[in-house]
Structures are given as structure tokens and as C-alpha cells.
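ok trying again, last paste got cut off:
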Amino acid sequence: MKLRRLLYVIVLAVLVLVWLPVETSADELVDKKTGFEFISSKYDRDSKAWQVYENMPEMRAKAVETIERKLGIIYEDNLSIVTAVRDIGAKRGQKEGILKAQRVTEQRGKRTLMVVNLFAEYIENGMMDPQKELTHEMTHAVMRELLGRDKYISLPRWFREGTAVYCAEQGDERIDFVFSSFWDQGLDTLVNGLDGEHGYMDYPEDYLAFRYLEEMYGVPTVKEVIANVMEGRPYREAISLSIVAPYPDFHEAAKKYALESAYKWRLAASGMQYFEKGKTLYAKGVFEEAAQAFRSALQESRVPTIIALCEYYLARCYYRSGDYDRSAKLFAKVADKARYTFFADRGWFYPAFINYQKDAREPNSLSEEEFAETETALERVVRDYPYSSRLHDSWYYLAHLKKRNEKLEEAAWLFCGYCDEFEEGKYEQACHLNAAECFFELEKYSQALEHAKEASIGDSKKMCQKAVVLRDRIREMMVENEE
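nice, full thing came through this time. structure:
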């Protein structure tokens, strides 16, 4: 195995010397080697995303080795599957929600290639374990390539995702994340059987079906199930033949095992009772009592997701109570725990928002350090958290903060960028108006006029009136300059 992996890495090292055409532009870094790609308008060669790209040959070799070790699938990799690091972007991120990686097929000339994309933002913000995510997606890609598209997608979603989570060894972290985040939705939601519609909360149960196979029948049986499927047998028959029992028996036993595993997790999740109590009190607006419950949970819990969630809600309690200093310190902890909570973006946003409001009340009141911290935090949300429900706010506040502090060139292009990225975004008219004002002050009248016209046809009558007045002033200046 080690010799095969060494030879594989050597072959990849030779192949990557063969460069494909490289596109370059002022605002995009594109690097393409045989089987590997990096495409980003956000991240440079000093980024975490680039480091992952640089290490991709070794990571890919490890993924192929893991697929053989865990599933028994032998795959001779000829780089027919492209592995890429690329941006998902704000527009798509807002539409898709959290999407760390994805497989797509692309037509390139006469060839149809499968491409495994690791999205750079989730590498950079820390939500992704790149090796595990690559192994997960390569499991899908390898099985699809060997089986063929039609046979692979005929497998139920639980089987495909359960196989990938099991192979990538993501099961325990998925269980902690989903159960901690959504336990209050009830076991009927978290463990609802393998069949039926599939969503994010189903991944733990998918994985637990394979863990059940491993614990009850052993690793060879798991590999036998996969081998039967790879030979083209229907998945129900593949399971029945391997465990020598009817599929319905397996289905019921797997659900029972998942329920038992959920109960065991709950009993072992120290501090969960205080966390649930805190959420209930928080929803009622009883912030002081909620804060005490979250502090109790933090004292007891050893589950990373529960700790991260408690810190987030405790920070929110302080924030809602007006204790902004304590709130900001806790939000900073949440920002560093992106692997364990959806709310890491809020850890950047809220301390920045506190400073933004302070600067709005008292212009130029932020110290240089406070201003730099606020800028950095908002930039992080805009750049690294494309799914964030605070992304629109962060983008607008960042641009407005720069404008208020006379960084007009930077502010103008941020306002423009928002309008380009989000058609009919909630700040579109305001961004057009602010961009017009910035360009006017910079004496870039053509650009100012363009944005003033756009701002004059929005929904806000007040902004429309301001835009019309500004538009007329711009035209006067343009006439004066011509004279």
C-alpha cells in the first residue's frame, strides 16, 4: 500500500509539470495543472486556499488510499477527475447556503470531465477539513466513474452520503454538529428512517447505518456490500446478500441502532440540559437567566459544538442586555470556532457592528486600532462567509464606514461591487446613491452620473429625491468642465 501510494505521488508530480493554458487578469488568480486547478478572485498565494491547492496531489493520493482501505475499491487514478479549489462567490453562496464542496460535470472541448470543487471560502474561514472533504467528494466521484452515472444516481441518497461520510471518517463530527444544533427539533426529525426526502440533518443517520454494519458484521461485510454494489447489484440485494437477512430487517435494525446512538450521545453530552434551558429562556427574552444557563452549560460541556453554541448565545445575551464589551470578547471566541457552528460569521459581525454604530453616533470616534479591527471583521464576513445572513449588512456597513472616514475610492468600489453582485439586493438603491456621492467627491462625474440615475429609480422616495438633486449637480459640473 505504501509503495503504491509513493509511486502514485511520483506519477502525479510528473503530471503536474504539464501545464494547461493559464488565464490571468488583474483581479483573478488562475492556475491550472493536469488534474488540478485553482481559480480565485479573492485569495492569493499566501492564503490557506492556495496551500491546499499546493498540497492537493498528496491529499488526493491519501483520499484514494482511504477509499481502498475503508471500502475495498481499487482505483487507478489517471486524473480523469479534476480536483479544484475555487471561489463559490457571494451571489451563489447566498443562494445555496453552506456548500463546502461539490461535484460537477463540465464539457471541455470534446471531453466531459468530472470536477470536484473545494470552495475556497470554507477553507479560509475554517469550516472545512480539506482532507476529509476531498475524501468525501472523491468517494462520490470514484464510485460514479466506475459505476457510470445512471447506476450511481440510482442508489438512494442515504447510501451515497452514508458511504462518503463513513469513508471520510466524518461521522462523529457530523453527529455532534447536527445533534447539538437541532436536538430541539426532536428525534423524529433527526432519526426518521433511511428512505424518503434527504436533507442536511439526515447525514448522521446515513453514517450510522454504515457504522451499524461495521459493528454488527465487521469491516469485511461493509466492503462486501460495496463490492456487490460496484458489481451492479441493487443496493437492497447487495445488503441482504452480505448480511444474510432481508433488507427490511436491516432497515429496522439500522433505525433502532441510530435511535440508541442518539440517546447515548444525549446522555454523554454533558451540559446539554443547561443549553436547552438557555435557548428556551433566550427565546422568551429573559436574558439574565438565559446567560446563567449558558454559563452552567459551558462549565460542564466537553462537546465542541455545544461549547461554541453556548458562547454564541451567551454573547447574544450580553449584546441584548447592552453589555457590549463582554459581548465582543465572547463573539471573538465564536469567530474562531467555524468548524463547530454556523454562527462563526456572527462572531466577526457583531463586534464590528457595535463599533459601526459607535462611529455613526460619533463620527471619527473610533481609534485607529478600533477602525482597523472593524474593517477587518467586516471584510472577513464579506470575503469568507458567502452563506452569511449578515453578508449584505456587512458589505454595506464596510463601504459606508470607509465613506464616513473619507476612504472614498475604496468605498465607491465596494458600493459598486454590491450592485454588481446583488441585483435587487436590499441595499442596492442606497449603494448606487452612495457610489454616486463618492464618485462626485472624487470628480469622476461620468461614473457618478451613472449611479445617480440608478438611485433615482429605486423604491425609496427619499433616496430618489436625493439622487435627482445629485444628478442635476453632476450635470452642472460636467457642463462647467466642458466650458
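cool. Residues 29 and 159 are 37 Å apart (CA to CA). The first strand starts at residue 24 and ends at 25.
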